[in-house]
Amino acid sequence: MPAEPTASDRAPGLMLGPGVELPESAEIGANVVIHAGTVVGDGVRIQDGAVLGKPLALGRHSKASREGLQGLLVADGATICAGAIVLAGVRIGARAVIGDQAHVRERAVVGDSSVVGRGVAIDNDVVIGDRVKVQTGSYLTAHTTVEDDVFVAPCVTTANDPTAGRHGPETAVTGPTLRRACRIGAGSVLLPYVEVGEEAFVGAGAVVTRDVAPRALVVGVPARKVRDVADEELLERWR
């Protein structure tokens, strides 16, 4: 078992694990806990009550990997907001923001300048690219891939298990793949294995049961294509 964090006078209520070093440029709020193995870059902001590098805790019957984890890395200029919990083995990119009360599980990656909103849950082994926006209350299930410049609106739900927990080791548990610059509307649901193509747009409340072609706009339950995304809607027009 790793040694427990001990009190530090760097900030009120700060608890630091053995070997954790904080650069002078880091801003630390009150009642922060930083576990052993965490690396904090220059100019990082950690707000009140955040927990960094939290050790993995799994239920007895969990099928998630129990392999040893590397330490948490928080790159230069990133912000971990109040009450957020970021587990060991995560990589947070430069200038990324992890919002209030967000939860980021082991081996997840959040790319440079990406924003994870309040109360977002990012499961294990999720890979998020650069400049992604994941808004309030969304859930990215384990083994989901989100490429650069994707927009995920509030309260989006993703799934990775077509059997709802009744499968053996032969069943692949894989979340959706969201290709570059696609947009996922508020409250939509994306089922396991689906791919949303580059610059596609999933309308609010849609249930995506099959792949969405690049630049397709889909709506409804189940989601169906209604038109192509127009040239003037493409990301390059709005940079």
What does this structure look like?
The chain has 239 residues and is mostly beta strands. 2% of the residues lie in helices and 28% in strands. It is built from 1 helix and 30 strands. It has one helix spanning 235-238, and strands at 6-7, 15-16, 27-28, 33-34, 39-40, 45-46, 51-54, 73-74, 79-80, 85-87, 91-92, 97-98, 103-104, 109-110, 115-116, 121-122, 127-128, 133-134, 139-140, 145-146, 151-152, 157-158, 177-178, 183-184, 189-190, 195-196, 201-202, 207-208, 216-219, 224-228. The chain has an 11-stranded mixed sheet with strand order 3-6-9-12-15-18-21-24-27-29-30, with no helix packed on it. An 8-stranded mixed sheet has the order 1-2-4-7-10-13-16-19, with no helix packed on it. A hairpin with a 7-residue loop joins β1 (6-7) and β2. The longest helix is centred in the C-terminal third of the chain and has 4 residues, at 235-238. It is globular. The model has no long low-confidence stretch (mean pLDDT 94).
Query: How is the main sheet built?
Result: 11 strands, mixed
Cα Rg: 19 Å
Name the beta content range: 25-35%
Total number of helices:
1
- Give the overall pLDDT as a whole number: 94
- Based on secondary structure, the structural category is mainly beta
Estimate percent helicity: under 10%
N-end to C-end Cα span: 48 Å
Give the strand order of the largest sheet, numbering strands 1, 2, ... along the chain: 3-6-9-12-15-18-21-24-27-29-30
List segments where confidence is low: pLDDT < 50 over at least 5 consecutive residues: none
Shape designation: globular
Based on DSSP secondary structure assignment, what is the total number of beta strands? 30
